[in-house]
Amino acid sequence: MPQLLNYLANGLVFSSIIVLGAIGLSLVYSIANFANFAHGDTMSVGAYAALVTLGAVGTAGPEILELPVGFYAALVAGIAVAAVVAVLTHVVVYRPLDTDSIGMLITSIGVAFVYRAAIQLQFGNDFREYDVDILRPVPWIEDATGVTLTEHELAIVVVTAVLVVGLHLLLQYTTLGRKMRATADNEDLAKISGIRTDRVITSMWVIGAGLAGAAGVFLGLFNQLGPRMGFDLLLVVFAAVILGGIGSVYGAMAGGFLIGMLNRLTPVLSDVGIPIKPAYANAIAFVIMVLVLLVRPRGIAGGDGG
Amino acid sequence: MSDTGENSEGGGEDTKTAFEASDDEGAPFSERIVTYGIAAAAGLLLLGVLVGLVNPAYLLSLLSLAAMYGLLSLGLNVQWGYTGLINFSVAAFFGIGAYVPVLLSASGSPISGGYPPLVGLPIAIGVVVVLALAIGVPTLSLREDYLAIASLGLAEVVRLVFRNQSEWTRGTAGVGGIPSFFEGIPFLETFPQSMPVVELGIYRLAVPFWSNLLNFALVAAFVLASYVVLRRVHRSPWGRVLRTIRSDEDLAEALGKNTFAFRMQAFVLGSVVMMFAGVFYAFSQNFLTPGIFDPIFTFYAWIAVILGGSGSNRGALFGGAVLVAIVEGSRFIGLGASFRLLAVGLLIVAVMRFRPQGLLPPRDELVWPSAKRGESRD
């Protein structure tokens, strides 16, 4: 039983990362109308930007959840750099394109390669880690429930919750949020209603890529950093987006949560007698993705944007 | 490469789809550039051979690689260029084509080994057809971008199986002891060893040269056979149905065509062509690892097709050659994998931005030459 709780706790942490990635991918799908294959590598960009920042500001000073303040500065830098890079890419690459959604998809593969190559050229192919202490599980949680959860993992969940609630408030209660929902629903209608959709699309890139940057930083904290870290996660994130319903932000959150959980619960399958190696965790996500596409081509919560 | 063909693809749309040429004022110009480019590259290579910079054995391996990428892109061209299927599982078929005959013939194979590679070939075709059906049945009716994601996902499942089922594939340790493709065939089996050593001044044509020559002959035969078959079927009524499906699926349905069946046939045919690339690759290596399933090969095939011009067979071959120029050229001048990735990425972005229809767009590949000259053909 504690083992199952452990898987669930681990799944919650991994889900947080997937949720953050899935929101951005879903936003791009609903507002810019294409499957953005560069989204995974946007995560890597955020992760490496945070690595550089952490190296510059150092780990001295007070700590929150056993993470130095410098780490939170690095997180903000990771979010900011990912957002800036995405907006620049939008202005330089995507906006001048005269092509359909498949052309955009293929272009985004090229963009993904450029991001990854830039990271490889600067940092090499080796795995790296953030210069923060590796922690023991939080004692009181372990004593009370037997769940081994470190404070870093708690930090991932807490910050993700803050970001997700913030996005919810933004979408529901601000003018920008209303404009974004309107643009996602029907760009032409939004345009003739006087919404400057160009600005909305730029904000969409800032938010989507910013969240991807945060996801990358957390992925680096959860595992380690490598140039392929984001690309390797991309299909899992796609699975989450499709499960939740393409173009739906709340669906992406739900899909991300489910896929993240399932991914970490794979060992349970062998415990209950289904001999599937944990190495197939991602394969299970992909098969679920295809099944969902078959049964409900617009995803479980799909149908309406926003 | 004729300059006379009329371009029938419609302009007049606001956005270009990735495989439709717009008004083709520039096409003959771009084709001239391509022709000069190919001539210049061939001249440079020849010069390199003459001054002793490019070993003939190396030249042969370059040509073989170009042909291999050409096979991948020819296969993808059937699926994407002609039918509009956005298949991102190229690497899966490439890998199956490599693994199946090797597992049957290599001495280091964990399951059987020892069969002549030629026996593995029909078995590989069988496995590829089954895999293509397994991937195609659930995905081919999906909308195109979902098809991309789903097929990439299923290709990753195949990769994970080959990585992790080490009792069948030795997993990441890889399979060694790969024989020559011609093992068990008289004369060809011992061809590289039995040929005399030829002294050519600066070069000495010995076993590596003859063995590369044999490999080149193999892949060239694959390319030639595929090219002829594909050109023939594309011009057939079957090919015209594919073209109709690509441009207007509802129309094809209204004409009474079972579009799903046609898509599936194109998918299977293209996958078999890709498989041959894998067969060549495996038997030109000493060692096979699941790295052959890396999605990068899928993207390489896509670049080759898009660069050459979606729907154009000669474009697919040209794209394969450019890819080798980038991949091997960067290696030759000492640039690492990162530069290669950068170059490939920038190339994709540049082509989509400036020439989405590719450098050698299809113009009259679906028209019988006699029909083009205004003759009747009966």
UniProtKB/TrEMBL annotation, chain A:
Q: Classify the main location.
A: membrane
One GO CC term of this entry?
plasma membrane
- Report the record's Gene Ontology biological process terms: amino acid transport
Give the location in the cell: Cell membrane
Topology in the lipid bilayer = Multi-pass membrane protein
Q: Which residues cross the membrane?
A: 12-35, 47-65, 71-94, 101-119, 154-171, 200-222, 234-259, 279-296
Write out the entry's keywords from A to Z.
Answer: Amino-acid transport, Cell inner membrane, Cell membrane, Membrane, Transmembrane, Transmembrane helix, Transport
Tell me which CDD domains the record gives.
TM_PBP1_LivH_like
Q: Which family does it belong to?
A: Belongs to the binding-protein-dependent transport system permease family. LivHM subfamily.
Q: What is this protein called?
A: Branched-chain amino acid ABC transporter permease
The scientific name of the source species is: Halobacterium litoreum
From TrEMBL, chain B:
Please provide the record's keywords in A-Z order: Cell membrane, Membrane, Transmembrane, Transmembrane helix
Report residue spans for region: Disordered: 1-21
- Subcellular compartments: Cell membrane
State the GO CC annotations. Answer: plasma membrane
TM annotation in the entry: 33-51, 58-78, 84-106, 118-137, 209-230, 266-284, 299-325, 332-354
Q: Which Pfam families match?
A: BPD_transp_2
The organism's place on the tree of life at top rank: Archaea
Task: Write down the membrane topology.
Answer: Multi-pass membrane protein
The cross-references to InterPro entries, in alphabetical order and at most eight, read: ABC_transp_permease, LivM-like
Q: What is this protein called?
A: Branched-chain amino acid ABC transporter permease
Q: Which organism is it from?
A: Halobacterium litoreum
